[in-house]
């Protein structure tokens, strides 16, 4: 699961209507000191609401996981630390024979790694005899059973934690009717545990339930590793396509959830289970197939996606009109030109044709090298009369360009000419305009984009200041602008892990800010 409206306007977008609230659930409510309480609605089940007004950046909760394990669809990983083992030499656990990065892996015997109990069970069941080390990639599917096994082992080692897990949503009745989901779990998890390993103390239904709980409630965590974690409280946050929280996890998998915007008392505390930079169609499809519910949030219900135009096309008939989905809550809905004046003779496209068009364009984008600035710019130009400038496909390209200008070979920041610096500024501003709608407030991507924006502004400023082309007031205005972007970037990025790319960017922002503050001392307050 993952994490955002303009500051100060959040109250109007509280997720649950009063009539939707059925009952208060106080069992998660720790003696009045928690910043949230749990309510239950017919639509969403249990969900968190703020007990007090929460400021952007404020910690809502911090907690260790109940269970950590490999994701489904992962590559072959170390059972202790989850390093990808497919592109490196590795070893087998001397006891149980399952893959490890080394006999000294720090995850051996660790509570969120390869525990003694797990090792004992995997050894006792002689489970490694099913692992074909001659064809390593075949081991991938065997790892699907590890996280479910870790949950099941809690039944004896920590019954309280097991009961906490069993209290989570599994959507068995819905998942049972999706063969790809149910049958895959039957083969990779249920049959593996019961038939191959002979662990008959668990029923098929119980194992399917645990699989469902992991699918519905896990957070994707870990740094440079493909890991999922089940947390005792954070799972209670409801989904919203413009969430109001952000989260991070530390080396020890501790998860910290912070408010990304102001959250008013009584408002739902939300995160996005889908990728916010995608279109409504894609997000809703993901939520239905992976989280088993239909999203009816304000963004999904609005053809303009709250003015972010993430799904909008340009009209091929009148060329100025915007083509939007007639009913975004129906995947099969037609799309029409919304130009109301007489300029457009009328344009409608079926859902099927729209899908074909977007699939073709997506294939083209997927073929672009992730460092190829020129081809990305060519793509934007090629589709300038087809895709709305803020369409999610264009937006993805612009996010990449906002970072590539100044960073990639041939486009290093000091090498950029004035036009290229202006282009970086233009793209960063366009990206921020959309982010202010779909990922507002203290969000990682806003922090990064603000930092990216300060850099070309600073270079242009120093070049022009050196040429003495600036009046005193212009000098101060430009410096103030840079200062403000840097300040916000450093505030947002201070919450990122120090060793991460974003954490390092936060550090760089703080250092650049100090330099600007030094100039301020010389030239006076700007
Ligand atoms: C991680 S759980 C959240 C906790 C869950 N509501 C409970 O009572 O255990 C995710 C599930 O909550 C429900 N849910 C969360 N957000 C929702 C939303 N915006 N609309 C409808 N259902 C939602 C869906 O059933 C989803 O599969």
TrEMBL record:
<dbReference type="InterPro" id="IPR046341">
    <property type="entry name" value="SET_dom_sf"/>
</dbReference>
<dbReference type="GO" id="GO:0008757">
    <property type="term" value="F:S-adenosylmethionine-dependent methyltransferase activity"/>
</dbReference>
<dbReference type="InterPro" id="IPR053010">
    <property type="entry name" value="SET_SmydA-8"/>
</dbReference>
<dbReference type="GO" id="GO:0008170">
    <property type="term" value="F:N-methyltransferase activity"/>
</dbReference>
<dbReference type="InterPro" id="IPR001214">
    <property type="entry name" value="SET_dom"/>
</dbReference>
<dbReference type="GO" id="GO:0008276">
    <property type="term" value="F:protein methyltransferase activity"/>
</dbReference>
<protein>
    <recommendedName>
        <fullName>SET domain-containing protein</fullName>
    </recommendedName>
</protein>
<feature type="domain" description="SET">
    <location>
        <begin position="31"/>
        <end position="274"/>
    </location>
</feature>
């Amino acid at each position: 699961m993952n994490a955002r409206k303009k500051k100060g306007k959040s109250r109007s977008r509280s997720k649950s209507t009063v009539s939707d609230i059925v009952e208060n659930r106080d069992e998660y409510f720790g003696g009045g000191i928690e910043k949230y309480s749990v309510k239950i609605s017919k639509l969403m089940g249990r969900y968190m609401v703020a007990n007090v007004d929460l400021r952007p950046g404020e910690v809502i909760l911090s907690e260790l996981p109940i269970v950590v394990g490999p994701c489904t669809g992962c590559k072959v990983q170390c059972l202790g630390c989850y390093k990808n083992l497919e592109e490196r030499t590795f070893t087998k656990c001397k006891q149980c024979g399952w893959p490890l990065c080394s006999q000294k892996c720090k995850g051996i015997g660790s509570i969120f790694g390869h525990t003694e109990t797990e090792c004992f069970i995997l050894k006792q069941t002689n489970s490694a005899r099913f692992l074909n080390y001659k064809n390593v990639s075949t081991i991938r599917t065997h790892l699907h059973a590890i996280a479910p096994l870790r949950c099941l082992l809690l039944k004896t080692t920590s019954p309280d934690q097991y009961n906490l897990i069993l209290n989570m949503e599994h959507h068995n009745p819905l998942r049972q009717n999706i063969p790809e989901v149910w049958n895959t779990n039957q083969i990779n998890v249920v049959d593996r545990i019961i038939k191959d390993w002979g662990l008959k103390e668990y029923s098929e239904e119980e194992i399917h339930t645990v699989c469902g709980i992991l699918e519905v409630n896990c957070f994707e965590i870990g740094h440079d590793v493909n890991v999922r974690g089940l947390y005792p409280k954070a799972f209670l946050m409801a989904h919203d396509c413009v969430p109001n929280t952000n989260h991070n996890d530390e080396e020890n998998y501790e998860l910290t959830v912070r408010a990304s915007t102001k959250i008013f008392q009584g408002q739902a505390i939300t995160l996005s289970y889908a990728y916010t930079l995608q279109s409504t169609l894609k997000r809703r499809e993901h939520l239905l197939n992976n989280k088993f519910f239909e999203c009816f949030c304000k963004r999904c219900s609005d053809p303009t996606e709250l003015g972010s135009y993430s799904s909008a096309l340009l009209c091929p008939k009148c060329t100025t009109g915007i083509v939007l989905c007639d009913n975004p809550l129906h995947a099969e809905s037609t799309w029409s030109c919304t130009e109301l004046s007489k300029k457009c003779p009328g344009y409608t496209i079926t859902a099927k044709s729209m899908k074909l068009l977007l699939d073709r364009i997506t294939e083209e984008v997927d073929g672009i090298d992730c460092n190829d600035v020129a081809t990305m710019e060519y793509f934007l130009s090629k589709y300038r009369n087809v895709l709305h400038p803020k369409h999610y496909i264009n937006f993805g390209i612009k996010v990449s360009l906002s970072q590539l200008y100044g960073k990639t070979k041939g486009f290093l920041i000091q090498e950029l000419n004035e036009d290229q610096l202006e282009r970086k500024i233009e793209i960063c501003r366009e990206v921020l305009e959309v982010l202010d709608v779909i990922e507002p407030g203290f969000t990682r991507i806003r922090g990064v984009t603000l930092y990216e924006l300060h850099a070309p502004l600073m270079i242009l400023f120093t070049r022009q200041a050196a040429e003495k082309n600036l009046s005193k007031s212009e000098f101060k205005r430009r410096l103030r602008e840079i200062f403000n972007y840097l300040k916000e970037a450093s505030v947002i990025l201070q919450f990122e892990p120090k060793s991460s790319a974003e954490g390092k960017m936060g550090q760089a922002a703080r250092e650049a800010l100090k330099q600007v503050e030094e100039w301020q001392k010389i030239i006076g307050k700007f």
